[in-house]
């Protein structure tokens, strides 16, 4: 087997615990056997079987995987997942996403999960991306190493041919399971593997190797252009609210604009948008009239423009709840599926004894609310304050209003009412909205 597992792990994660995605099939069995053959590594290994529940044999396969792990003297974990496809999601994508989430769940800080994907898998991946109109990132295929949850995802067999893997399995008398769904060409990858690639290989015997080499060239070009795109992106990006400057964006050449948008989506941990969608973004949102309120939705997010900036905002959810009681013994109050309102000790904000003795409720705007602010004369409507602060309209309805004993005391983490505001060393409560959405952690504080 032309792969040095020990050297590979020494380069990428010398001190990590090693988790091996083990389906029971021949590829993952060979990878597990290779790793377990290294005495110094064996004690660090855990074989992980992800139980999708999609096949009637899944339970028996899990038992087989446990038996193999025991016989090799390595740890074993079985993780059950729900791989039911969501609307608009293919069964393949649903199973892959569930599998990756399960693998991420077992990783600690700096741990590594090893996948047994090989040269033939890389060939299929690149062909699929080509047929789907993928760009450089897609045509780069699968990387050998990538950040994954709290640790790393590694593919040590990417340069190894399928025939070499099968030969190793036979030479060592390995026993593996066969998934009957692999024979069905209803799935795109199986169609390539079973029907298309066998037609190509007699004419181009080194097809997998040469396509993998091309993928490497694309990966190099992708890395270079990503560095350049990062410079273009930094010139138009505001890290405070993760928005883009529309004027500066329009000043870029079309090709650069496209790279900036894709860089933006990568920063937000969103799927790369198709080219047609990017064109709609520029024609319907960026190029809309100044007084318009353009909206383009997709992936659960809304793309909007406000005051010369482009925002990618998760759809706000306030529901039909009028009041949310807050037990202040809890440091945070969930507002929806991605946001929570938190309090922290501070030297500025609401006085701690007042906070502790009050009935605390969170409400959302009904219209007409006013608040008097410290060191400002008179009362101010929330509408005017939001306008002055440049709060985009779609965020205003979801802004939590904090009431103490029925009186408006604070607007999210932005303002505290004058009658509740104080400054006293470490004797106050500070409020802050914390968001966690598709990899974007945004904080809104006083």
Q: Key terms for this structure?
A:
single chain; 446 residues; alpha+beta; Rossmann fold; Chorismate Mutase Domain, subunit A; 3 domains; six-stranded mixed β-sheet; five-stranded antiparallel β-sheet; 16 helices; 25% strand; disordered C terminus
Write the layout of secondary structure elements.
Layout: H1 5-12, E1 18-21, H2 26-36, H3 39-42, E2 45-51, H4 58-72, E3 75-80, H5 91-106, E4 112-114, H6 119-131, H7 136-139, E5 145-148, E6 151-154, H8 162-171, H9 188-200, H10 207-236, E7 237-238, E8 243-245, H11 246-250, H12 254-267, H13 275-286, E9 295-298, E10 301-306, E11 309-314, E12 323-325, E13 332-334, E14 339-351, H14 352-357, E15 360-363, E16 370-372, E17 379-381, H15 382-389, H16 393-396, E18 401-404, E19 407-411, E20 415-416, E21 421-437, E22 440-445
Parallel strand pairs: 1-2, 1-4, 2-3, 4-6
Antiparallel strand pairs: 5-6, 7-8, 8-11, 9-10, 10-11, 12-15, 13-14, 14-21, 15-18, 16-17, 18-19, 19-20, 21-22
Helix pairs in contact: 2-8, 6-9, 6-10, 10-12
Number of domain units: 3
Number of strands: 22
Write down the CATH topology of the largest domain: Rossmann fold
Q: What share of the residues lie within helices?
A: 25-40%
Structural class: alpha+beta
As a whole number of angstroms, the C-alpha radius of gyration is: 27 Å
Give the N-terminus to C-terminus distance in angstroms: 60 Å
Strand order of the largest sheet: 3-2-1-4-6-5
Shape descriptor: globular
Q: Report the sheet-strand fraction.
A: 25-35%
Known CATH architecture of the largest domain: 3-Layer(aba) Sandwich
The CATH homologous superfamily of the largest domain is termed HUPs
Q: Please, what is the average pLDDT?
A: 88
CATH first level of the largest domain: which class?
Alpha Beta
Contiguous helical run count? 16
Spans where pLDDT lies below 50 across 5 or more residues: 437-446
Quaternary structure state of the chains depicted: single chain
How would a textbook summarize the main sheet? 6 strands, mixed
């Amino acid at each position: 087997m032309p792969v040095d597992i020990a050297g590979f792990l020494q380069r990428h994660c010398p001190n990590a615990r090693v988790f091996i995605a083990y389906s029971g099939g021949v590829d993952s069995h060979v990878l597990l056997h290779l790793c377990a053959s290294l005495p110094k590594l064996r004690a660090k290994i855990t074989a992980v079987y992800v139980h999708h529940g999609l096949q009637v044999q899944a339970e028996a396969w899990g038992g087989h995987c446990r038996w193999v792990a025991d016989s090799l003297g390595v740890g074993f974990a079985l993780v059950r997942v729900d791989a039911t496809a969501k609307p608009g999601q293919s069964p393949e994508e649903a199973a892959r996403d569930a599998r990756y989430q399960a693998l991420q769940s077992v990783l600690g800080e700096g741990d590594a999960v090893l996948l047994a994907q090989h040269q033939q898998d890389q060939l299929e991946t690149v062909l699929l991306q080509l047929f789907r109109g993928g760009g450089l990132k897609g045509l780069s295929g699968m990387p050998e190493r990538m950040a994954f949850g709290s640790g790393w995802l590694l593919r040590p067999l990417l340069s190894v041919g399928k025939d070499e893997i099968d030969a190793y399995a036979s030479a060592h008398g390995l026993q593996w399971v066969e998934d009957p769904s692999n024979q069905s060409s209803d799935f795109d990858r199986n169609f390539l593997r079973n029907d298309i690639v066998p037609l190509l290989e007699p004419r181009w015997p080194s097809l997998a190797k040469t396509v993998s080499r091309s993928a490497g060239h694309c990966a190099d070009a992708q890395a270079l252009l990503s560095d350049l795109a990062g410079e273009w992106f930094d010139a138009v990006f505001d890290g405070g609210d993760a928005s883009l400057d529309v004027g500066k964006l329009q000043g870029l050449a079309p090709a650069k604009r496209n790279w900036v948008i894709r860089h933006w989506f990568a920063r937000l941990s969103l799927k790369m948008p198709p080219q047609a969608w990017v064109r709609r973004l520029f024609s319907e949102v960026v190029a809309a009239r100044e007084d318009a309120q353009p909206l383009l939705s997709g992936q659960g997010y809304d793309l909007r423009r406000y005051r010369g900036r482009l925002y990618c905002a998760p759809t706000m959810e306030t529901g039909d709840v009028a009041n949310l009681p807050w037990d202040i013994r809890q440091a945070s109050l969930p507002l929806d599926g991605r946001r929570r309102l938190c309090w922290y000790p501070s030297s500025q904000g609401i006085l701690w004894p007042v906070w502790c003795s009050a009935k605390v409720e969170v409400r959302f705007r009904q219209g007409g609310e006013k608040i008097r602010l410290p060191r400002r004369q008179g009362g101010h409507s929330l509408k005017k304050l939001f306008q002055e602060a440049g709060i985009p309209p779609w965020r205003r309805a979801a802004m939590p209003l904090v009431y103490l004993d029925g009186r408006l005391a604070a607007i999210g983490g932005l303002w505290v009412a004058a009658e509740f505001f104080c400054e006293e060393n470490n004797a106050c409560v500070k409020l802050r909205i914390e968001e966690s959405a598709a990899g974007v952690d945004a904080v809104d504080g006083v």
